[in-house]
Amino acid sequence: MNVRKITIAIDGYSSTGKSTMAKALARAIGYAYIDTGAMYRAVTLYCLDNGLLDGDRVDEAALEQRLADIHITFCPNDEGRSDTYLNGKNVEAEIRSMRVSDKVSIIAAIGFVRRDMVRQQQAMGRDKGIVMDGRDIGTVVFPDAELKVFVTADPMVRAQRRHDELRAKGDTTTSLSEVLHNVTERDRIDTTRAESPLRQADDAIVLDNSHMTIAEQNAFLMGAFAARSHSC
Ligand code: DC
């Protein structure tokens, strides 16, 4: 039996633990991993820090002009995890803050931003052997991916997980109901936007992890990977 290099697309709702599982899978099988949400988050941080966002209003003309000045890269840190850099600065922690989470869906709904990100993502995955997670990977970025997984979980379970994460990072002020509101609001914007709305690809495998342990998820993914990567 031969093993071929494949493309793995992991899409789904926010705070379903997609990134954690995609990262673990990539490490286990020796593939590259790209967190495309981090790219939209980095663009959002750039907008916040450069006065391109006023409340929920984006200065789209200025953003379009400055898009070529926004350089997003990923570099491994001392713990072997990949950190996100915006124009050479490590922004891994900042892009996970509520300040960015609150606005990122607005930026991710802009057509010219999406086209630019998709172009970069397709270039990163040109040689296969990649695990990419996001919202449109199996539908737009790599419609021919050999393995597509669509991850979902109960909104309250997702909010609780995100809340626990924020607490662990020292945020003691954001309430569970605020996080739940952010999760459901992002679901609404992500699924109803005109540009590449979040949807399950017809050929994706659905993974509802509301009541699954990390070990169960990993086993599920390894099984799906083994089935797709073997060619006779
Ligand atoms: O996965 P995440 O929560 O870090 O994603 C942040 C936001 O970016 C989320 O609101 C959806 C959006 N996103 C997207 O529209 N397309 C992607 N491929 C990845 C993320």
Report on this structure:
This protein is α/β, with parallel strands linked by helices and 232 residues long. It has a single domain (2-231), classed as Rossmann fold, CATH 3.40.50.300. The chain is 47% helix and 19% strand. The protein has a five-stranded parallel beta sheet. A three-stranded antiparallel beta sheet has the order 6-7-8, covered by helices on one side. A hairpin with a 5-residue loop joins strand 6 (72-76) and strand 7. Helix 2 crosses helix 6. The radius of gyration is 17 Å and the shape is globular. It starts with a strand and ends with a strand. The model has no long low-confidence stretch (mean pLDDT 93). 2'-deoxycytidine-5'-monophosphate binds next to helix 2, helix 5 and helix 9.
